[in-house]
Design goal:
This protein is α/β, with parallel strands linked by helices. The chain has helices spanning 32-41, 43-54, 94-111, 130-147, 162-172, and strands at residues 3-8, 18-23, 66-70, 78-83, 115-118, 154-159. It has a single domain (3-172), classed as Leucine Aminopeptidase, subunit E, domain 1. Strands 1-6-5-2-4-3 form a six-stranded mixed β-sheet, with helices on both faces. A hairpin with a 7-residue loop joins strand 3 (66-70) and strand 4. Helix 4 packs across helix 5.
């Protein structure tokens, strides 16, 4: 049975098999969670992301898709990069947001991860309200887990700030 939980903290310090990066489509780092993960992982992560861009994802990672790399200097084994929809750019379909979570879990299962930590993908600079992200994320994760209850041991939402944590905590209650 998979444990689905929320904690307030720093995703880069989580002792899990995989952490999910709220990446931009370039995969080459950015601000917020993406910048923090790249900074903590070190240059190895950027090298792996550049290799992805030189291959299959030459045009960048599409919104709602996910791909794994090693984790560089992070305590996790893998970083799963997903690109959330940007509400400011007119990307308002909750299905795109849900896909970030389900595709990330698909990739986690493919690489053999048993524990995964997620940030609040698309909350913050991408303009989605914390409550809506929490609702979509928790629903998507619960649906995925119910279809494959033995694949993962832990899915943890690691949230920065009281407002976002409270939204996820309420959704999980």
């Amino acid at each position: 049975m998979t444990v689905v939980e929320a904690v307030q903290g720093d995703i880069t310090t989580q002792q899990v098999d995989a952490i999910v990066n709220a990446a931009n489509s370039s995969l080459l780092g950015g601000g917020g969670v993406d910048g923090a993960i790249h900074a903590a992982a070190g240059p190895e992560l950027l090298e792996e992301c550049r290799a992805l861009r030189a291959g299959r994802w030459r045009d960048g990672l599409p919104v709602g898709e996910a791909v794994a790399t090693g984790a560089g200097r992070l305590p996790a084994r893998w970083v799963i990069h997903t690109v959330g929809p940007n509400r400011h750019a007119g990307q308002t379909d909750p299905a795109l947001l849900a896909s970030c979570f389900t595709r990330s879990l698909d990739v986690a299962a493919q690489v053999g991860a048993r524990s995964v930590a997620f940030p609040a993908v698309s909350a913050g600079v991408y303009g989605w309200e914390a409550e809506e992200v929490a609702s979509v994320a928790v629903s998507a994760v619960r649906d995925w887990v119910s279809s494959d209850p033995d694949s993962l041991e832990v899915v943890r939402f690691v949230l920065f700030g009281e407002t976002v944590f409270s939204a996820f905590d309420a959704e999980l209650s």
